[in-house]
Each structure stands twice: as C-alpha cells, then as structure tokens.
C-alpha cells in the first residue's frame, strides 16, 4: 500500500537537517511514548506490523505535521482503541481530567 | 502541530490508563527508557566493526551471517530482526535508509537520529544517494558504485566502513574511536587517524 509514508524518491523535501551531539530523546515524553508503544507490543495487544500500519494510517497532513514520537503515540492509541484495550472515549475522558488538574 | 506540553499530557493520560489497568508497572517503563538511552547505541556497533577490521575470521562470519555474528558479540536483536552487514570498498559504497519509516539496527546503533527519520533523507537517499553523500561532505570516487539498502522491520542493514589509511598499527580498542554512527549508516567514512 502506498501513501504519505512511502517517501523513497519523492522530490521537494529540501535539505537534510542534522544536529550535532543529538540526544537520544529531545523531551522526556518521547522516551515514554516509545516505552508505552513497546508495552503494547510486549503485552501482545498488537504486533509490530499492525503498529506500523496504524502509523501509516495517520492522515497525510497530520503525518507530515507531527513529530516522529507523536506518530508512535498516535499509532499506539489507534491500536489500543481498535483492540478494545483503551477506547478513544476513555482516553479523551482521562485527558480532560488531567487537563483540569493542570489549570 | 501540537505543542510539547499537549503531547506530554497525552502521553501522561495513556500512561496513567495503562498503569491503572495493570497492563504495565512503572519500573518496566523506566527500564525500557534506560535500555534505549544508555545501553543501546553506536558504541556497540563500533565494537563489531573494530573486531571485523582486526579479525578476518570474524569478518567472514559477519559478512556471511551478520545476525549470528552480532549475537556472538553479545548484542541480541531487540525486535527479532535479521541483520545484514555490507562492506564498503574502494569500488563499492553502501548507504542505508528506511524509506517507509525508521527501521534501524537498534542492537548495534541504538535509535536513529532525527535526520534518518526525516522526509528529506528518506526521499533522497533513494533517488539521489550521491547528492546525499555530498551533502554529508563524503567524497566518493566517480567510478565507484553506490548501493542503497532500504531497511524494513524484519531486515536491517549496517555498513562495514573501510578501515582508514594510517590505522594499520592500531589496536582493536583504539580503532573504536574511528568508527562513527554515520560511518555505519554509510553517510560518511570512518575517521582518519
């Protein structure tokens, strides 16, 4: 299946931006997003191919706009919802609850 | 584009639900982060390369069956993937990419840098590898063949860079400093001592 993720040979993305002494993670949440995806995989809630396919189903505009580990997070959320582990509604409710705490 | 605070909150929401449901325990999350931050990384790959430069029998095993040779060095595949090591020579230069996403040999190189996962590299490594090498400041003979290897979830590539001139008398341990992450991806040469 082709799609926005199938980037080999596409023109127009510009120069390759590199960072000297790049850290493994730029934010604490990035490591956590990776870890939670791996928890989903290790727990057998979804497999690696399903997870990759979930990230490939992120809407093209979003796929380009969000960062790498956001794609991991959104892929994990999609799979957990699809497998009936954590529904979108349940996630949204928790998000609202936590947002309230912070304000 | 979501702000970092918003994404951090989304991650926290997911984490709290997984913890609450007993699907993960907090130390397990910390353990995974520690693995990727501290234990996996190009320092592992460098040991494989330095040994291949100094031990011809190991090099032959590495090129014949990289998965087994790398396990022999103590680096188990993180995702059960198979490994292929491709050798650079004066005639052949190898370059590794993952056009579809970010597949990378985690056990030997750790997590990939941002540029490896970025659209410009994924797009152009496939269509204009010589241009990409020039962008990295890596000179390749005009008549050398450039081979591009597109990684996937099951099969991941690592480059065996050419042992640099002037390193002939160096010990395996001293050679480690010459083996960079980028030289094992193929976007640059090993460091000349």
Strand and helix layout:
The complex is a heterodimer of chains A (103) and B (193).
Chain A: H1 28-42, H2 48-56, H3 60-65, H4 68-82, H5 88-102
Helix pairs in contact in A: 1-4, 2-4
Chain B: H1 4-20, H2 26-39, H3 42-54, H4 56-64, H5 66-72, E1 82-87, E2 92-97, H6 106-109, H7 114-117, H8 119-127, H9 129-135, E3 145-150, E4 155-160, H10 172-175, H11 181-185
Parallel strand pairs in B: 1-4, 2-3
Helix pairs in contact in B: 3-4, 4-5, 8-9
How helix-rich are the residues of chain B, as a percent range? 40-55%
**In DSSP terms, counting alpha (H) and pi (I) runs of 4 or more, how many helices of chain B?**
11
**Low-confidence regions of chain A:** none
The share of residues in extended strands of chain A comes to under 5%
Number of domains of chain B: 2
How is the main sheet of chain A built?
Answer: none
Query: For this structure, what is the CATH class of chain A?
Result: Mainly Alpha
Task: Give the number of helices of chain A.
Answer: 5
Query: What is the CATH architecture annotation of the largest domain in chain B?
Result: Alpha-Beta Complex
Rounded mean pLDDT score of chain B? 95
Shape category of chain A: globular
The end-to-end distance of chain A, rounded to whole angstroms, is 43 Å
Roughly what percent helix of chain A? 55-70%
Order of helices and strands of chain B: HHHHHEEHHHHEEHH
Structural class of chain B: alpha/beta
Overall strand count of chain B? 4
Distance between the termini of chain B: 44 Å
Unreliable residue runs of chain B: none
- The best one-word shape of chain B is globular
The CATH level-2 architecture of chain A is identified as Orthogonal Bundle
Mean pLDDT of chain A: 94
